[in-house]
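sorry for the late reply, my laptop died twice this morning and i had to redo everyting from scratch. anyway the thing you sent over, i finally got around to it. pasting the sequence first so we're on the same page, its 93 residues, then the predicted structure underneath. double check i copied it right bc i was rushing
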Amino acid sequence: MLLFGKKIEIYESRNYGEFKALKKLLKKNGISYGTGWVQTEVACGCGAKINMRQVINPDYSPYVWSVYVRPENEKEAKRLAEELEKNLIDRNH
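ok and here's the structure:
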């Protein structure tokens, strides 16, 4: 957990599955990290309980998740993030 000191953002995405996988990978490799999220949009419609954007595209998310690391862990964390992205792309094709 990173409360104080300099932090560098290494990852930002709307894909929650990738976000969780990256957190697990960083933890497995002993890299401390911090996370955050922002809701970028509200559900469309007045009092809408169903977001039509998610009905049309199940992968749509109104949230953006971010991962931060210390500057001394930046290179290793970015390398792990790139490996994860490459593995996910290879798995989808």
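Residues 58 and 65 are 17 Å apart (CA to CA).
thats about all i looked at so far, will dig more tmrw
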